[in-house]
Amino acid sequence: MRRNEPIRGVAATVMLVMALAAGPLSAQETEIVFPVIINAVPVGESNVLIVSDDFYLPVATLERGRVAGVSWERVLTVARLRNAERLVGGEPAVSLRSLAPWTTFQFDEAELRLSLTVDPNLLGASSMTVHDARPSDIRYSEDNSTFLNYAVSSSGFSGVTAFAEIGSSIGGNLLYTSLSSVPG
């Protein structure tokens, strides 16, 4: 936990209480900083504009949460056509209600955080590059060798447990076997 998280939480609570005390949310627009979670993954804190029972979240925050791609651009265009865009913290923000049914959201008053569930079709593609991590100058020996490993232990009156393995490397090929004995 970072040292300044409790201070931000208290500040956000005070701002929310002041906004609620000033009157009903339906008559106000309140901008507060909240932690944002998209599909159970924290994406950091973001300015959020509360207007009645709707929340406006910066588009950049959604895109930080991997919301991207052609489908996302189409949904965002529909939201803009519905006139569901405003500036929040100097950034373009979109109404979360206008993103339904592709996005649902929940504001947790106790934790002071905004959680979103985004349809997987609105998430950008993920890729992972898997490569051989072995050093390029590694040398595998083809020398002949043999090994024997063993372990014997006793756990009081229950008997003796034993394990052994033997192997031989011949011309770079390994012949291996193991055995174990458990009291029974």
What does this protein structure show overall?
There is one protein chain. With 184 residues, the protein is an alpha+beta fold. Helix content is 20%, strand content 42%. The strands form 2 sheets. It has a 7-stranded mixed beta sheet with strand order 4-5-3-2-1-7-6. It has a 3-stranded antiparallel beta sheet with strand order 8-9-10, with no helix packed on it. β1 and β2 (41-51) form a beta hairpin. The radius of gyration is 30 Å and the shape is elongated.
Contiguous runs where pLDDT drops below 50 for at least 5 residues: 19-26
**What does the overall shape look like?**
elongated
Distance from first to last alpha carbon: 49 Å
Strand content: 35-45%
Helicity, as a percent range: 10-25%
Helix tally? Answer: 3
Summarize the structure.
With 184 residues, the chain is α+β, with helices and mostly antiparallel strands. Helix content is 20%, strand content 42%.
What is the topological layout?
Blueprint: H1 5-22, E1 29-38, E2 41-51, E3 54-58, H2 59-64, H3 70-81, E4 85-88, E5 91-95, E6 103-108, E7 113-118, E8 145-154, E9 160-170, E10 173-181
Parallel strand pairs: 1-7
Antiparallel strand pairs: 1-2, 2-3, 3-5, 4-5, 6-7, 8-9, 9-10
Structural descriptors:
about 40% strand; three-stranded antiparallel β-sheet; alpha+beta; seven-stranded mixed β-sheet; about 180 residues
